[in-house]
Amino acid sequence: MKGLIQRVSSARVEVAGDCVGAIERGLLLFLGVEQGDGEAVADKLADKVLAYRVFSDAAGKMNLSVSDIGGGVLVVSQFTLVADTRKGLRPSFTAAGAPADAERLYGYFVERLRARHATVATGVFAADMQVSLTNDGPVTFMLSA
Predict the structure, then answer these.
(1) Is 6 a catalytic residue?
(2) Cβ atoms 138, 25 nearer than 8 A
(3) CA angle in degrees (0–180, nearest 5) for 88-94-98
(4) What share of the chain is helix, strand, coil (3-state, %, to 5)?
(5) Which residue, among 23, 30, 50, has the nearest Cα to 117 in the 3D structure?
(6) Which helix (H) or strand (E) element contains residue 9?
(7) What are residue 85's phi and psi, to 5 degrees?
(8) Is the link from the previous residue into 138 a cis peptide, with omega within 30 of 0?
(9) How far is 25 from 95, CA to CA, in rounded Å?
(10) Is 90 exceeded by the pLDDT of residue 145?
(11) Has 109 been annotated as catalytic?
(12) Is 79 annotated as catalytic?
């Protein structure tokens, strides 16, 4: 399981022109599920996302997490994160989790976040989504569990 987090001033996701999820200050998380991922991996990554220190403290150092600042988390499924791009000019998605397994684990991951954090919004799994964001910094990190 891989998560690409971006520190944002705001972010929103639309499906067919309708806003399905939006946050103000917080983290936009693109989530990719790989074959073999399970609930233990999802738990570990969820804990990491909520505790990862990417927000500035009073001294201007990245010492605060999204939980510390009470920010939002917007989770968007993105299987392309697990693509193998080492060979050729076309990505391979053989490492991606099967759609049904990935959707179940994505749902589990979101529920894990919601159980521990007040503001969690989502996109729609496997939908054609338009994501808008204002990256704050920019600050972007790839996380693995």
Answers:
(1) no
(2) no
(3) 150
(4) 25, 40, 30
(5) 50
(6) strand 2-15
(7) -115, 15
(8) yes
(9) 32
(10) no
(11) no
(12) yes
Catalytic member of 55, 78, 109, 125:
78
Which option is the CATH number for 2-134: 3.40.640.10, 3.40.50.300, 3.50.80.10, 3.20.20.140? 3.50.80.10
Tell me the domain boundaries of the chain: 2-134
Catalytic site residue from 6, 30, 55, 79: 79
At 89, the pLDDT band (50, 70, 90 cuts) reads very high
Structural contact between residues 101 and 55, judged by C-beta atoms closer than 8 angstroms: no
Q: Which of 80, 85, 130, 141 is catalytic?
A: 80
Tokens at 83, concatenated: 């693509």
pTM (predicted TM-score) = 0.96
**Mean pLDDT, rounded, for 25-47:** 97
Give Cβ neighbours of residue 37 (< 8 Å, ≥ 6 apart). Answer: 1, 97, 105
Q: What is the mean predicted confidence (pLDDT) over 11-30? A: 98
Alpha-carbon span 123 to 65, nearest angstrom: 22
Q: Is 4 helix (H, G, I), strand (E, B) or coil?
A: strand
Residue 97 DSSP one-character state: P
SS3 (DSSP) at 122:
strand
